[in-house]
Specification:
Elements lengths: L9 H12 L5 H8 L3 H13 L3 E8 L7 E9 L4 H13 L3 E9 L3 E7 L2 H15 L3 E15 L15 E5 L9 H12 L5 H8 L3 H13 L3 E8 L7 E9 L5 H8 L5 E8 L4 E7 L2 H14 L4 E15 L6
Antiparallel strand pairs: 1-7, 2-4, 2-5, 3-4, 3-11, 5-6, 5-9, 8-10, 8-11, 9-10
């Protein structure tokens, strides 16, 4: 965790909250919502970027709807050195099929999510990976990633409205959406910069602004585009990341637990996979005490529902791209 704390005021938090809701909305809209002149909002956003609080702006894209499936694997290292660790991480970052690469402290060291059309493609990739790095893998844990629910970062505000808690869903197994090459190119631009001007996209793709606007609207209506968000380095604001992996004693309680944790403002994400834990929850908290308090509340609310749980913390995100680079 980065020990350099950045102090921000309530107005900064409201700006971050609005960018998390829709990072593509205009500065004028944000200024009205937070009660500041648009030039002041621009200045504050620029300052937050310079201080490293705002990392980038990204688009949540449901690539399941583009015909992909997702394989996820966790690695535990052995015989590792800093240089070999960096080499392995860079190896996964460079792969055009990986869409999330991150390091953790805890029961595993590295997590990688991989977009795949055919399972054999992943098998061939993993064969090559083992030829290179098997000596450094103590444990390999695989699962089929099937669902991701992302939640608006309500913990930014003390007086958030629960009804305003936006949810983004990326769910595998649904009907494939038919899109063309222009749609794909638009998605690629938005994936790495959600705030890229429509005029700039139109110029780069040699088409009209109206065409780009209508395509973005269509992709949003088809739920291919789930939302436009901001990537924030919460460690600079004093928060710590905890991912808890839960084995359930009573699987029938899973839905009730999910409905309960949705009301917790610190909840960032719910993962669903085949072949790992029964329930996976991601939180940003003020520290280990708040995290344990959240888990104690869940276990008290649902006695005998949870068999056990493990957790990792202090995640370091190396790559996040919701659409394959190919």
């Amino acid at each position: 965790m980065n020990n350099i704390m950045i102090k921000i005021d309530k107005k900064d938090r409201k700006i971050l909250y609005e960018l998390d809701y829709d990072s593509r909305q205009s500065i004028s809209k944000i200024s009205k919502k937070v009660g500041l002149h648009k030039n002041v909002v621009l200045y504050r956003i620029k300052r937050l970027i310079e201080k490293g609080v705002i990392v980038d702006f990204y688009t949540v894209i449901d690539s399941f709807k583009l015909g992909y499936n997702s394989v996820r694997f966790y690695l535990v290292y052995r015989h590792i050195t800093p240089s070999i660790r960096r080499e392995i991480i860079e190896y996964f970052i460079r792969n055009k099929h990986t869409w999330w690469v991150g390091s953790f402290e805890g029961t595993y060291d590295l997590a990688v999510l991989w977009w795949v059309r055919e399972l054999r493609d992943f098998y061939l990739f993993w064969e090559e990976t083992l030829k290179k790095y098997q000596h450094y893998f103590q444990k390999q844990i695989f699962s089929n990633y099937v669902e991701l629910r992302l939640y608006r970062h309500s913990f930014l505000l003390d007086d958030y409205n629960f009804k305003d808690r936006k949810e983004y869903e990326i769910v595998g197994g649904g009907r494939k959406v038919d899109i063309d090459d222009l749609d794909i190119q638009i998605l690629k631009f938005l994936a790495t910069n959600a705030r890229i001007p429509t005029v700039e996209i139109a110029k780069k793709l040699e088409t009209t602004v109206d065409t780009i606007k209508s395509r973005i609207k269509k992709l949003s209506n088809l739920d291919v585009i789930q939302g436009f968000r901001v990537s924030i380095d919460y460690s600079k604001l004093g928060y710590q990341f905890y991912k808890v992996n839960i084995d359930l004693n009573d699987y029938n309680q899973r839905g009730r637990i999910i409905n309960y944790v949705k009301s917790i403002p610190n909840l960032e994400m719910i993962d669903k996979a085949i072949g790992f834990y029964d329930l996976e929850l991601d939180f940003w908290t003020n520290g280990i005490e708040q995290f344990h308090q959240i888990m104690d509340d869940i276990t008290i609310k649902f006695p005998n529902a949870i068999k056990n749980y493990t957790y990792v913390h202090d995640a370091k995100k190396h790559k996040m791209l919701y659409i394959p680079e190919i």
